[in-house]
Amino acid sequence: MKNFLLKTCLFLALLLVIRSVSANVSLVVLGDSLSAGYGLSQEQTWVAELDRRWESSHPDINIINASISGETTRGGLRRLEGVLERHKPDALFIELGGNDGLRGFDLNTVRSNLKQIIDQAQQQGVKVGLSQVMVPPNYGQRFAEQFQKMFEEVAEEKNVTLIPFFMEEIATNADYVQDDGIHPTAEAQPKIADFLEPYLLKLAQ
């Protein structure tokens, strides 16, 4: 009888562990320096800020930063298979394209890269969110408009959530931008987390 009760308790405990693990949601951020935390420590990034918040408020969500400074859509596409294999995410937030735009890459190529990233993720049952990205106005109004519209069209075509560009308001505050005029400061990271949190929570649920 004791052995039976012991085996029953162990079985129930195992079920609880399995349910707990299966209930966890993994959200991967595939981005560039804006998410990787250029000039900052990893603990200062907006991704780390959300991770700290969610440890208590949403312990079932595990957010992983797979961002690299200088990353392009081509680089993200090349890395994607390994990222998906390693982390097996339930959701993917794509924050790429800024470096493509700053380098004047062909928009058709950028569009193709983004679509392939989304396709690969969706084929594995991963829910995708795409960040809107903008280029500085000095790149010309026509190119800036085409660049912005590209993200809208890709999101619509692939039926994924388009998340507004988190740097749009940050960039207008000198205290929130580093001396290079591009990258957000440590002080800006909680603001970015505030902005993105509701979108990423919805993506992960």
Largest sheet composition: 5 strands, parallel
Can you tell me the residue ranges where pLDDT is under 50 for at least 5 consecutive residues?
11-22
Q: Kindly report the spatial arrangement of strands forming the biggest sheet.
A: 2-1-3-4-5
Any guess at the CATH architecture?
Answer: 3-Layer(aba) Sandwich
CATH class: Alpha Beta
> Roughly how much helix do the residues carry, as a percent range?
55-70%
Total domain modules = 1
Distance between the termini: 43 Å
Radius of gyration: 20 Å
Number of alpha- plus pi-helical segments: 9
- Range of strand content: 5-15%
Average pLDDT, to the nearest integer?
91
CATH fold-level assignment: Rossmann fold
Order of helices and strands: HEHHEHEHHEHEHH
Structure classification:
alpha/beta
CATH homology superfamily? SGNH hydrolase
- What is the tally of beta strands? 5
Please describe what this structure looks like.
The protein is of the alpha/beta class and 205 residues long. It contains nine helices and five strands, in the order H-E-H-H-E-H-E-H-H-E-H-E-H-H. Strand 4, helix 7 and strand 5 form a beta-alpha-beta unit. Helix 3 packs across helix 9 and helix 6 packs parallel to helix 7.
What's a quick, concise take on this entry?
The protein is α/β, with parallel strands linked by helices and 205 residues long. It has one domain (24-204): SGNH hydrolase (Rossmann fold, 3-Layer(aba) Sandwich). It contains nine helices and five strands, in the order αβααβαβααβαβαα.
Spell out the key features of this protein.
alpha/beta, 55% helix, five-stranded parallel β-sheet, Acyl-CoA thioesterase I, 5 strands, Rossmann fold, phosphatidylcholine lysophospholipase activity, 205 residues
